[in-house]
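To the wet lab folks,

You asked to see what we're planning to order before we commit. Fair enough. Below is the target structure as tokens, and below that is the sequence we designed to fit it. If anything looks off to you, flag it before the synthesis order goes out.
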């Protein structure tokens, strides 16, 4: 079984773009997070709302996009942000947004990858939890 240390970003990083659904200007900020935190999204335009863990338990049904909610806040179109974090093997990160959706770019995760690489990636003391499928 493959095992490695958890990872986060070394320093905050920002990306600005527009929302595909709303057309609004969207600011997205990646922040380092403690080991064991996971990926969480937080709506800073809704004061007092707690971060939403990017887990299956928080997914809400949408057509042709991925959305998560904690009941008080919802974040839409997170799939390209999640792809960038997963592709770079970043386990822990707080993603803050000032809108209901992640900003669009060229329709891929490439711009997010560049921003995250500029922030730097660091290992953390805790080992990464590995899930193994034993049956299809």
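Sequence we intend to order:
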């Amino acid at each position: 079984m493959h095992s490695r240390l958890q990872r986060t970003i070394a320093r905050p990083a920002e990306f600005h773009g527009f929302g595909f659904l709303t057309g609004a200007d969207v600011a997205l900020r990646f922040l380092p997070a403690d080991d064991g935190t996971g990926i969480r999204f937080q709506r800073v335009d809704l004061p007092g709302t707690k971060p939403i863990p990017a887990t299956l338990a928080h997914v809400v049904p949408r057509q042709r996009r991925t959305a998560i909610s904690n009941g008080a806040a919802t974040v839409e179109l997170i799939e390209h942000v999640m792809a960038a974090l997963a592709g770079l093997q970043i386990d822990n990160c707080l993603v803050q947004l000032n809108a209901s959706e992640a900003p669009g770019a060229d329709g891929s995760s490439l711009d997010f990858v560049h921003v995250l690489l500029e922030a730097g990636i660091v290992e953390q003391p805790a080992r990464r939890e590995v899930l193994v499928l034993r049956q299809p």
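Structural context that might help your review: The longest strand covers residues 25-32. The beta strands are 5-9, 13-18, 25-32, 39-43, 52-53, 59-60, 67-69, 74-76, 93-97, 121-127.

Thanks,
Computational group
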